[in-house]
Amino acid sequence: RPEPMDEAIASKPLLGAFVSLKRAGQLRSCCGFLGPSVRLGEAVHHAAQRAALDDPRFPPISPTELEHLDMEVWLLWGLKPVEAKGEARVDAVEIGRHGLQVQRGPARGLLLPAVAVEHGLDALGFLRQVCLKAQLPSDAWKDDATQLMTFEGYAIRGPLGVVLEPPAAEAASGGPSVEELAALTDFCRRNLMAMVQGATPSYYLPGGFDDSVNGLLLDVRLAGVEGTVSVHRLSVKPAMPLQSTLFSLVQALAGGLHSRGVSAETVAAAKINLTVLWDPALHGAANAPDLSGFDPSRRAVVVLGRGGWACVGDPSQSAEAMLAEASQLAQVRDADHATALSMAFASSNERRVVATNVPSPDAPRPAAVAGMFYPGTAREMDAMLDGLLPREPKTERWAGAMAPHAGWIYSGRLAADVLSRVAFPSRAIVFAPKHNAVGADWAVAPHRRWVLPGTIVESDPELAEQLAGAIDGLELDGAAHRPEHAVEVQLPMIARLAPATRVVGVAMHGGEWAQLERFAEQLAGLLSGMAERPLLIVSTDMNHFADEEETRRLDRMALDAIEARDPRRLLEVVREHRITMCGVVPAVVVMETLRRLGSLEECQVVGYTTSAERSGDTTRVVGYAGALFR
Fold first, then answer.
1. 305 neighbors 475 (Cβ within 8 angstroms)
2. How far apart are CA 123 and CA 146, in angstroms?
3. Which of 225, 246, 441, 532 has the lowest tally of Cβ within 10 angstroms?
4. Inter-residue long-range contacts of 6-10, CB under 8 Å, 24+ positions, other chains counted
């Protein structure tokens, strides 16, 4: 219950209030409550409640964190529209005094007055940041259609100063008892045995523990079999219902055991360990966490990196040792962008708990988008390839190719037309845009094979290692490729056309001309010494989501630069005109590499189309182009 507030103070009218919580100077939560005119007491109460429980960016505050948090309470007033237009709006913003609110349509963003001061922003930088907060273009503040408002505020700062006695903290945190965990583990065993036999499992354990949790790790050690079969799920926010999540994990585990021919008798004799994690607490960046108050006997360390997560619970180790081990398992390369957490945990059989979802370099890369971008079964995929590829393709030697990577129903025919004209060498490198935030910005796939419905495409780990060793900023990183579709959609066609060709995938996000030129210089240096050069394939779509007429106009400018065989001009045109060609970075790198190798003397545009050809919708389309280089 909230503490009572003096009525004379609580009744003061305000615009609203924000409560910001920080740990060791790093943001832990910040939420507010706004209204045309709201009572101070009501505004502070709602802001505090939301900051404790409902910040969408973070898990709820753990009781274990309270004594380590600093708090700011912002009282806000004076919301006024900025009457100035265009560039003149800059002059209406006074750093240190004003906060900003921007709104256009459903998009809205708000930044408190302290944001500009803490980050050293001038008025222009502050305006740009509030637009980005609203997920608008950074210059949207200039547009008369964008509503820009200023407000003022006063902050009360200090340590939160709440210390819970251990029994109170433990009671607040939840989690299964030893008996409840044993019952759940036995329930898993019985369901595994039923599923392996093909019998009907039990979907729910009556009376069993079923609170919301943040992690489940299920391990099975089979007699006479080396190693452990494991499944796991982790969700910092939102929490997961335990029993339904556990049932889905048991299903996945049973499928794996059944495929290996494991009998119900073997499952009955297996050692099964169930670990439950709950009550996440944030400790900050993995390179400079605040580990004060961490109890290794009760809590596990979790590291969230760009490539995935890792969890280590080991009461025999210090918090620092567990953090180092978890960071290594998560393959953290940039600790500034990795987060350290702890979670309360209970394990049915093991004192030490270790798990990660970061793929091993030796593991095959499973299909990620089969059934979405192309058919999900071998029979359906082969049937569609029969309709896309020519029966007797006429091939020539080309040094490079550019093909689209949308769903096959939209761009598959054009991609097939491009690739079916190529006489493939023994190896190919597909350079693709990186559509996800997982893993390194420039990532070469380290695995040995790509698994597709009904077929396997071999990769070349040795070539991948050579690429990562020769090119600054390019990293061996399987995590970046795990969800990426832009390489995968090309693979079934390559497998049909050139089943002996080994394919290495490179995913790329970002880069200025100097960096891309350096990449191309180093790649060309590596390839020039090879007896047989790999085919370089650019996987890219063209402009996204303008109408048909505008898409064709913008794509024509990009295609003019491609046909002119001018990679620097391509980069400049795309960025100057905001052409959303997702694979422009791979295209620039491949074209510049070919130019340095003397293999950019000819460009043949194979075709161009848009999604409207298939969908009939000309109001919001994507452009697709195909080309060959030598």
1. no
2. 17
3. 532
4. 9/40, 9/41, 10/39, 10/40, 10/41, 10/42
Q: How do strand 271-285 and strand 215-221 relate by DSSP bridges?
A: antiparallel
Which residues share a beta bridge with 476? 444
- Supply the pLDDT for residue 2: 57
* Eight-class DSSP state of 98: -
**Which pLDDT tens digit goes with each residue over 57-112?**
999 999 999 999 999 999 999 999 999 999 999 999 999 999 999 999 999 999 99
Handedness of CA 197, 199, 203, 205 (dihedral sign): negative
pLDDT tens, 444-474?
Answer: 999 999 999 999 999 999 999 999 999 999 9
Q: What is the pLDDT of residues 275-285, one digit of tens each?
A: 999 999 999 99
CB 610 within 8 A of CB 379: no
Looking up tokens 């900050």 gives 284
Burial class (CB in 10 A: 0-12, 13-18, 19+), 458: middle
DSSP type of residue 567? H
Of 491, 498, 506, whose CA–CA distance to 449 is shortest? 491
Q: Look at residue 167 in the predicted model and tell me its pLDDT.
A: 46
Model pLDDT, residue 29: 95
- Residue 368 to residue 445: CA distance in whole angstroms: 14
How many CB atoms neighbour CB 403 within 10 A? Answer: 30
Tokens of 108: 């809205």
| % of the chain exceeding 70 in pLDDT | 97
